[in-house]
Here is the input.
Amino acid sequence: MYELLEKEYVTDITIMMVIKAPAVARKTQPGEFVIVRTDETGERIPLTIADFDRDAGTITLVVQEVGKSTMQMGKLGVGDGFANVVGPLGHATEIEDFGTVVCVSGGFAVAPMYPITRGLKEAGNHVISILGARSKDLLFWEDKIESVSDEFIVCTDDGSYGRKALVTEPLKEILEERGKEVKRVWAIGPAIMMKFCALTTKPFGVKTIVSLNTIMVDGTGMCGGCRVQLEDGARFVCVDGPEFDAHQVDWDLMMARQSYYKPEEQLAVERWEHRCQLEALA
Amino acid sequence: MAELTIKQRRQIPRHAMPAQEAAERRSNFSEVALGYTEEQAIEEANRCLQCKKPPCVDGCPVEIDIPGFIGALHDGDKEESLRILKSKNSLPAICGRVCPQETQCEIKCVLAKKAEPVAIGRLERFIADWDLERGAATPEVAEPTGKRVAVVGAGPAGITCAADLARLGHSVTIFESLHAPGGVLVYGIPEFRLPKDTVYQEFGCLECMGVEFVPDAVIGKLYTIDELLGEQGFDAVFLGTGAGLPSFMRIPGINYNGVLSANEFLTRVNLMKAYRFPEYDTPVKVKKKVAVIGAGNVAMDSARSALRLGHLQAAGVLPAGPEEASTEPLEVHIVYRRSPVEVPARAEEVHHAEEEGIIFDFLTNPVEIYGDDKWNVCGMRCIRMELGEPDDSGRRRPTPIEGSEFDMEVDMVIMALGTSPNPLVFRNADDLERSRWGTVEVKDEKTGLTTKPRVWAGGDVVTGAATVISAMGAGKAAAGDIHRYLMNGS
Ligand SMILES: Cc1cc2nc3c(=O)[nH]c(=O)nc-3n(C[C@H](O)[C@H](O)[C@H](O)COP(=O)(O)OP(=O)(O)OC[C@H]3O[C@@H](n4cnc5c(N)ncnc54)[C@H](O)[C@@H]3O)c2cc1C
Ligand code: SF4
Ligand code: FES
Here is the structure.
């Protein structure tokens, strides 16, 4: 069992969890992920590592309550545990001193972006961070990101905080103003956001890296369920990624594959909510 | 019991295996073959001629004394029969169920020349099941040697190696990347062919022997092989990581939704128990027109699992989404580019698949998969094949017949085309030589010693996808050599 040491709701639907996993923490590098399973009947789900502390032997995961498994995590208390935490998996982010870089994160992807931003900053880059969310109440960790950025822009879709804009708007402005300066862009968030970031940067010829969150089973290259179509053929996200050149990805196919099990996920959520209601009554 | 003459023995017909009826078993995941009764087993044992130079033994990859164990069974000495079996095969309940006997021992049986061979596999299973039923005793463990061995991968090769080394007094730790031990026996081969209870009973109580099991440990990532031998303080490492990497055809449409590797499909169903969704969280889609590409055991297991899921859904046991709830009849096809003669699966599985209503499309090869506007599979273009001259494998090479393309209506395609070793374990282990196919090169097949000092390997990771018995045998052989090394230091 992997013990849950700390748990905090950073927004109404976003949970931050600190988990004891010393062997995993010892090896973790920015950009890598773990596969977790809550209990014996649980599914194996991939989660990007949002932070790690080698001395304390902990990793931090941030999840949004969207499906049955993540809702169940919401019910876990400090001292409870996960049946399995497998990792670190995937390749670490390629971090070096590129010069000026832009890190765009959407929604709860602020979490996986944090160790990457920190790594880039520590490597000597001039880091411009763009944070986006639908509204103010879905934003978190602005202070953490800001503390490792040289420039910092926040926008919300509804204008309830920061600039009223989609993340692609400031991204485009920066590229128009200082296109030559920007050596690399990272974009992590919902697939649709990553797709539009890719479309935004493409005309400027700036290399853009995305971290893909496809469906996974094992996370070790065994099933191929995670595969993504790039211009020159398919790749397994779990072992070849999770980061890829955004301009190579077949986004529409990827999004279709992500939603293959939507009806089943819906059913599992309904069943879970029903069970929670019954428990509340009892 | 009165001794029979050879003529009398030859007149006894081979005993059929009691099995669940096809119509019934199509809607459950319980074991199909039920096992001989004691009378059937003894009668069948009576058929063995007790050859002085038994050809069947030559066919057995681990050279079990077949007439020996059958003779003891015939004499009513099950204990002795078991002892003979176990001296060569640590996993007889498993191998009795899944070995391809018809191409190994039974094909060589002298009876096979004129009639049907002795049912060696079924007798092996009978003895092994008898042992498991009475509750196997914990094996004795030798005095601790103070030596530590890391076994990577908990498939039949790794488990056998670990158990043998523990018995010899070494301290063994098994590192497994999945959450459960068993390898292919647990994530690949379905319950209806190999019950998981049987697998775990046969593995025995490894903890009682002092073996430590570490799940969730992906070697190559969590620890490298060098770290196991260095900071982690192991004296030797055995690699039994199997051949778990799936291959996909290089044809248009291969990444559409609804095209899965057999590994993904079977892992969802077996390891993650998707056939009990939503009680278990992992879902699996069950479609109406399923094509499984390939005709090995993996293909049969996939096709028969798909068929069962379809029937469970029709019976309302498994929930159906709107697309699956249609009343269209279920069709599961095996699409194979060669002819029935070349089918590599166990004969019994092919026979069971036919009985259950799987449709076989021989000499047929997919060339393109069609998708609808949501990137879901909606059809498959195939081409007819003909057999030409024999190729390297000695089988006649299939070649496409020009202009014979046709379309098949399918909504799910499962690729069961063979697998190769997963390279993850070899990260940062460049001094471990591997072949062009990604398999580990061993200096001597009898020991499994690799080119990297203090590292042994065996099973599918060395041979490429093969059999449970050969993996078991390789684990056993390596354990012997590792023991020799640990005690002599050379
Ligand atoms: C569906 C299917 C049906 C089959 N049917 C038959 C049959 O009827 N008869 C027969 O004889 N054979 C059959 N086979 C083949 C047989 O199962 C294999 O040959 C046998 O299991 C190989 O054993 P192994 O111990 O070498 O590897 P595996 O059983 O593959 O076990 C390897 C283990 O290593 C683990 N592992 C891999 N990489 C790492 C890593 N980096 N770190 C830690 N752990 C790792 C894996 O998770 C796995 O648990 C079948 C195979 C499949 C897939
Ligand atoms: S070849 Fe057949 S008859 Fe002869 S010993 Fe083997 S099983 Fe018995
Ligand atoms: S998750 Fe199975 S291969 Fe990537």
Notes: Chain A touches chain B at residues 23-24, 27, 37, 41-44, 68-69, 83-89, 217-218, 220-225, 227-229, 234, 239, 252-253, 256-257, 260-261, 263-265, 267-268, 271 (CB under 8 Å). Residues B 48-51, 54-56, 66-67, 109-111, 118, 120 surround iron/sulfur cluster (ligand 2) (CB under 6 Å). The first helix of chain A runs from residue 22 to 27.
